[in-house]
Design brief:
Blueprint lengths: L2 H10 L4 E7 L5 E11 L3 E6 L4 E5 H5 L3 E4 L1
Antiparallel strand pairs: 1-2, 1-5, 2-3, 3-4
């Protein structure tokens, strides 16, 4: 996979519901539920269910630090 493919795939899912799991060090992980809000050259944003907006890097998706379920 490359960044262009990931970016176009996420751009096609704007408005779709997603679940994002972020894997941190020492087996810590955090889960976010929301809607793909917008895409930018380096990041994409997700509007979370609580109303806040969180941004994620495409590189983290490629390196599997972030897992997305659409």
């Amino acid at each position: 996979m490359n960044i262009k493919y990931i970016k176009s795939y996420i751009a096609s899912k704007i408005g779709s519901r997603v679940v994002i799991v972020c894997y941190y060090s020492r087996n810590k992980k955090e889960r976010f539920d929301g809607i793909v809000f917008n895409v930018y050259p380096k990041v994409f944003t997700v509007k979370l269910d609580n109303g806040s907006i969180k941004s994620f890097n495409y590189v983290d998706v490629i390196s599997k630090n972030i897992r997305m379920c659409i």
